Amino acid sequence: MSANSLPEGAAVWHSLEVDKALDLLDSNADSGLTPQEIQQRLQKYGPNELEEIAGRSAWEILLDQFKNIMLLMLIGVALISGFLDLMALRSGSLKPGEVPFKDTIAILAIVILNGILGYVQESRAEKALAALKKMTSPLVRVIRDARLVEIAAKELVPGDVMLLEAGMQIAADGRLIEQSNLQVRESALTGEAEAVNKQASLKLPEETSLGDRLNVVFQGTEVVQGRAKVLVTNTGMTTELGKIAAMLQAVESEPTPLQQRMTQLGNVLVTGSLILVAIVVVGGVIKDGGFKNIQELLEVSLSMAVAVVPEGLPAVITVTLALGTQRMVRQNALIRKLPAVETLGSVTTICSDKTGTLTQNKMVVQSISTNNKTFRVSGEGYAPTGDFQLNGQKISLEESPEISALSVACAVCNDSVLQKEQGEWAILGDPTEGALLTLAGKAGIEKDQWNSKLPRVAEFPFSSERKRMSVIAKVEGIATGEASSRGIDPAIAGFLQSEPYLMFTKGSPELTLARCTQIHLGNDTGTVTEAQRQKILAENDLMASKGLRVLGFAYKPLLEIPPEGSDETSEQGLVWLGLVGMLDAPRPEVRAAVQECREAGIRPVMITGDHQLTARAIATDLGIAQEGDRVLTGQELQRMTDQELEQNVDLVSIYARVSPEHKLRIVQALQRRGRFVAMTGDGVNDAPALKQADIGIAMGITGTDVSKEASDMVLLDDNFATIVSATKEGRVVYTNIRRFIKYILGSNIGEVLTIAAAPLIGLGGVPLTPLQILWMNLVTDGLPALALAVEPPEPDVMQRPPFSPRESIFARGLGSYMIRIGIIFAIISIALMWWAYQHTHAAGYQGDPETWKTMVFTTLCIAQMGHAIAIRSNNRLTIEMNPFSNIFVLAAVVVTTILQLMLVYVPPLRDFFGTHYLNMQELGVCIGFSALMFVWIEAEKIFLRIMGKKAV
Known about the structure:
By secondary structure, this protein is of the alpha+beta class. It has 33 helices and 30 strands. Strands 10, 11, 12, 13, 16, 17, 20, 21, 22, 23 and 24 form an 11-stranded mixed β-sheet that branches. It is elongated and about 125 Å long. It starts with 17 loop residues before the first helix and ends with a helix.
């Protein structure tokens, strides 16, 4: 077969016999490929590398920031303002001491700052692919042209024969040719921490899920134990890792709800502003009967355009989100992308991995079955403290000596170590064996002590073919309290007569029981009957149906150490001890977090690579699903069309044995149903779904670099409960963003209407310059808005459904509030403006006739301070609130008022901002008119409260 006719399918290798796979790839298990074949295949398939699709350059990201409609309008305003200043400079019509182009410079500075702010947020390079590339092995050993050679991993081609041994990272996907006791850790791909025992001789069905393909190995996974010869079947982007890279790059980032709302807000403001500008210009031209005052009308239009754009809003939102990230970090949630803070508040569905997030990632023995009794075991984690319960009643070990006997087997037939580090119990070794040591500790059996009572002298190690392991120990006497007497520990006294050795065996319950001829009952042994066998197997099935991982234990007294390799004959005639069922136990705090999710209108969903029985047991225990709820497996999902999955996705809360593309499909199906999805994950397999999800949440402890780089948020404690805390914070942030948008835009509308009214009611000139408007929008609006951003949460924030992520920024009364308050603001300001104009143009007025403009400027600024104090609550009166519950609002009002007065009474600032000195009477009038804003908002609250009582 030529290189050009090699099979393209990647999912069928596990369903082929070894010889058939070798034939299809025209390779030889002993001699590998020839140099000519290698060269041909390199040309056809290219190097064994992950390919990167070019994204946007830094310049493109920067230029995209200036496509924002509000910034484009400001750029236009700056250019027109600069043109008018240039004309005035040439004609010599500038006022004495007036600085030309100051408005243009100030506006362009704001535009550039906003552009840089957006660029910094958006330019975080996607490093997920770079992290994926790190998972590929640099060097690999292969057989080529009948010689063993070491080559760079990128030179591998389909048909190569690769050699693996413990500690190696696998450089390509391949079909096992032969293996010896091979264990591979595939957690990066499947999400499950336990190493997988591989078998070359298997032939599996085509639909076998990724985690169950025991006759193939995958790029990026790690050999834990054993050795193997592998036929390379897929390289580069056709490997399972390559498919993830392709999916990762195919996922396009959608704008967050906040970004969509800000775009909508910009469009509405700019459109409204242009309509008002047109009305003012056309109205002015009609009123004047021509274009003689066109320059004045243009100045009014420029001021209106600057007034309508909330220049300080992007900075206030960025600082608000940054403060939110700081609060979230204190709750163990690290935000990688700022908009994710607010986005969390819109989440309707949380798709969570099981291992380590919903569970403790610690195997814990739940029940044991021995001497025809089943005992429940209490306790959490690896701490060797807990009780043994029979029918709900705590029992003593003296009543049930068989528990001690079984616990000895758990401790002796064990290669792990249980130790206490910094006050926490931890395991060195396999988590399953760690759970057995913890069980033994609860029965008072400590491995260190029993290593001296039963020192290991030989063993038959675990293998995937045998599915069991045995340990041979020498029986040592113990001190009995008599001066010279020695005896046997009571826990194993019933095991022996005079034999000097004991063999303990653990493994698959069915296979271990099949080798037993006797059964241990209390302190005696008897022949195992067929009825007893059936009862043990039934109990094994019952434990397995609850999602437990079950091991069987047996022992055998020996007169001598069995010879090496005699496991087949030595492991016969065993004495059955009992069953041990264990589970990666749920985190205790997750149940409450799931309940809080339900109350908050958020639906939790479990998506795991684990078996469906285990998934169902954990999900039911935590309240994610109920008894009888459907579990959708990866195989079933594979057979579904996208439309069928979309129809079922709202009905299924548990997905088991899923592969990377399944997770991605689930998230996409939920999104098509209008759900706003948070997806948690730790493995490489989760990265595409993390990137696709509205909020991708990676694990900080167990998470791979790939998953972290693809995520929006990292859980520093890998805890589902932390997601719920972060969601609450997201809701608080969104509520506060809406609060200060109401505050800022209500005043902006008032400014625009006031400016527009000046020429229409016959007042000369523009009441506010662009520079003064920028001051209001950045300082007198910005500082109180920042203070409102840290308003404490409302008590019912997690007792209501999430607000729709697709709701308009003007939804739920925000738009009507802005218009209503803007109009009231304008009425107050126009009334003041009319009075001030008459006052400063009256006969005998001692000051500058232009002083009326400063009165308007000051009134608008100080009125906003009353607005900031009143808007802290929608329904409670200011006198009903603790003024010190948000001390920042109080501080912002005081500081901003002082800064505003400095613009009026400090000469250099007065000259730069074009203001005029106000006497005490004029300042008092400004403060009086300003106070009307506060009075109006408080009166609205009282009116709505009265109306509310009438409605009741």
